[in-house]
Specification:
CATH class of chain A: Mainly Alpha
CATH topology of chain A: Arc Repressor Mutant, subunit A
Helix content of chain A: 55-70%
Number of helices of chain A: 6
Low-confidence stretches of chain A: 1-22
Strand content of chain A: 5-15%
Largest sheet of chain A: 3 strands, antiparallel
Number of strands of chain A: 3
Oligomer: homodimer
Strand order of the largest sheet of chain A: 1-3-2
CATH architecture of chain A: Orthogonal Bundle
CATH superfamily of chain A: Winged helix-like DNA-binding domain superfamily/Winged helix DNA-binding domain
Distance between the termini of chain A: 34 Å
Chain lengths: 161, 161
DNA sequence: TATTGTTATACTCTATAACTATA
DNA sequence: TATAGTTATAGAGTATAACAATA
């Protein structure tokens, strides 16, 4: 359960008294708030590894797609291509990814994980499992599965594709 | 459905090709991404009304709790009390809320909606319904309800209380 | 001493325009 | 003329420290 609500965060996730249920009538509001809370916890953990959520998202995505180019990667992680430049720059400097010119289209930068990148993404995934458990702990196993399935469906029909 | 993915947003929600399913293994990742997308759409709509998500969150929350003080409001909307000052300042300048000293504890600022504030929150809620429909359109009615229920449960056990 | 609210500041995230090089 | 990537910049969002008034 949320064991460390009195931690160093200055966001007020640990409210003293709950708002009435009617307040949370909008699914969009709940998504926004819960997304922010999830991002906050991930960001705190990743910062200890010198990373941001976008860095991790890029590594995780690359682990899946194996090879892609920069613009496509930006789309997959939900970041504007212009803002993705610094993300990719950072990961390349850390030698977690490698960026090479695509000979077929010399405008493109082919991107793939390095061996070190694969190790790092695995380490971060492990570290994230605790956060995941902590956030979902208040739900039953069935509820956790149902939520995941619905979020995945929603992701497919809104963000992705 | 998502009719305007080729709009003025420079976030890349409208991806050309989908990532493999394994990519979306983490519920926390899905929450983060979907929350960001929801916030993005709300922010775009609210900006047309000269507002931010926090402004709307504060108005909506006040409509529910009727009367509270600044620190408590900050907790309810998930913003650090120090960062909530400018939010409350803004809403007071727009005459959407009124802020008065609590006679019982003169450190506290009692906050409540004005009549104009109530009108505004209703207007914004209406404007938000389209966004809500748009985001959830790909799900069936049953799925929408199930998702809402689960998010509300999750909100209660993590963010709230 | 602790709490409510405030001011100030820095840092991250997001949005946007203008540019280079390739196609 | 369009696309991949880059540079630069401004604004919104978040985190943090130090402070005044009041309890």
């Amino acid at each position: 359960m949320i064991t460390d609500m009195a931690d160093n965060s200055h966001e007020s996730a640990g409210s003293a008294s709950a708002a009435p249920p009617e307040l949370r009538a909008s699914t969009g509001y709940l998504l926004t708030r819960l997304g922010a809370e999830s991002r906050r916890r991930w960001a705190r953990m990743l910062a200890a590894h010198g990373m941001t959520p976008h860095h991790y998202g890029a590594l995780m995505t690359l682990e899946n797609v194996k090879v892609t180019h920069q613009q496509h990667l930006a789309e997959l992680i939900g970041v504007d291509p212009r803002n993705a430049v610094s993300v990719v720059d950072f990961l390349e400097r850390q030698a977690l990814i490698e960026r090479t010119r695509d000979p077929a289209d010399r405008r493109r930068h082919t991107i793939r994980l390095t061996a070190e990148g694969r190790t790092t993404v695995e380490t971060l995934r492990r570290a994230g499992e605790g956060i995941e458990r902590d956030i979902l702990d208040g739900l039953t196993g069935d509820e956790q599965l149902a939520l995941h399935t619905l979020l995945q469906r929603l992701f497919e029909v809104t963000v992705d594709r």
